[in-house]
């Protein structure tokens, strides 16, 4: 039987239709990515001149490191084709501003190369390298502390929007809060008012741990769950055990648990799947919030229902997904 679920954090509705997994051709699996050729990989160590001049890099053990040279563990460069720019020009004014409005696309758009190794997925890196990469994610979010919203994401595989296969993150520093994130901010605030100061995600996590049916894994820093209103099959959410507003603040970053659950996805699906991953951190104006990491494998296509209504159709119940990934 199908049911409609409302995600507690976003308010978005999803139809959980597990019976549709039995349709012909509905089996879910992933095929391995094509191996990367280091000789043609612009993000590989030794190819520093193939990117824009670096903004930041870690070169452990290198005395007096020079920029744009080998020896780095994580490297940050401007996006060669940025969606945002600090000096974006004013758009032309439209005659009817009640109907047509525009603003300059101001902000920053950076690429964080997660490792010098030519691999396509975070799951293929040693966990220590994932920790190092995520510490740089945090550092670059701090570097743009004045932005209204920082959105850090990882796209893996072309099916999920990656234009270059070498594992990398992107950071958008926006001078506005997107509507979807503002809606989450409002839901956190409304929940705090209703509960006299309760934290929406912290209380949700506590209830999920009590129920156990959607828990995937737990370590000392965080908990991984299959969200109640999962929009896509095998969607995951990683939540810190102690609620903190901002990912960029000092404290645990859940790197080991992220590496763990990405490995579980690969084992369950037969290969690392195409996926989108992002870090949700408190935007400006958030008096109540908690950071999290969302992981959305791209195993099914968004079609007319999703694109036309904003309602997703998920053929794998999160309870089943969590049970399978616990065993993976």
UniProtKB/TrEMBL annotation:
Residues 2-178 form the Galactose-1-phosphate uridyl transferase N-terminal domain. The keyword Transmembrane helix does not apply. Keywords: Carbohydrate metabolism, Nucleotidyltransferase, Transferase. Residues 22-49 are annotated as: Disordered. It holds the Pfam family GalP_UDP_transf. The keyword Transmembrane does not apply. PANTHER family: ADP-GLUCOSE PHOSPHORYLASE. This is DUF4921 family protein.
């Amino acid at each position: 039987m199908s049911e409609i679920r409302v995600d507690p954090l976003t308010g978005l509705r999803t139809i959980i239709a597990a019976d549709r997994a039995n349709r012909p051709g509905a089996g879910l699996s992933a095929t391995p990515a094509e191996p990367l050729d280091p000789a043609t990989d612009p993000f590989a160590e030794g190819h520093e001149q193939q990117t824009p001049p670096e903004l930041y890099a870690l070169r452990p053990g290198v005395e007096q490191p020079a920029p744009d040279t080998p020896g780095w563990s994580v490297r940050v460069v401007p996006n060669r084709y940025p969606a945002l720019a600090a000096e974006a020009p004013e758009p032309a004014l439209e005659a009817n501003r009640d109907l047509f409005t525009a603003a300059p696309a101001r902000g920053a758009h950076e690429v964080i190369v997660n490792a010098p190794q030519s691999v396509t997925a975070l799951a293929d890196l040693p966990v220590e390298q994932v920790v190092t990469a995520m510490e740089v994610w945090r550092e670059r979010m701090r570097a743009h502390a004045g932005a209204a919203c920082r959105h850090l994401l990882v796209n893996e595989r072309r099916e999920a929007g990656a234009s270059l296969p070498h594992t990398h993150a992107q950071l958008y520093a926006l001078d506005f809060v997107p509507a979807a994130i503002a809606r989450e901010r409002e839901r956190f605030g409304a929940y705090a008012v209703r509960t006299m100061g309760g934290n929406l995600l912290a209380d949700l996590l506590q209830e999920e741990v009590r129920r156990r049916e959607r828990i995937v894994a737990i370590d000392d820093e965080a908990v991984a769950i299959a969200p109640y209103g999962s929009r896509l099959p095998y969607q995951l959410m990683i939540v810190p055990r102690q609620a903190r507003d901002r990912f960029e603040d000092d404290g645990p970053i859940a790197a080991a648990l992220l590496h763990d659950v990405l490995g579980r996805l690969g084992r369950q699906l037969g290969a690392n799947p195409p996926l989108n991953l992002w870090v949700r951190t408190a935007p400006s104006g958030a008096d109540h919030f908690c950071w999290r990491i969302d992981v959305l494998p791209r195993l099914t296509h968004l079609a007319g229902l999703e694109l036309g209504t904003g309602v997703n159709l998920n053929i794998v119940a999160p309870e089943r997904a969590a049970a399978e990934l616990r065993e993976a």
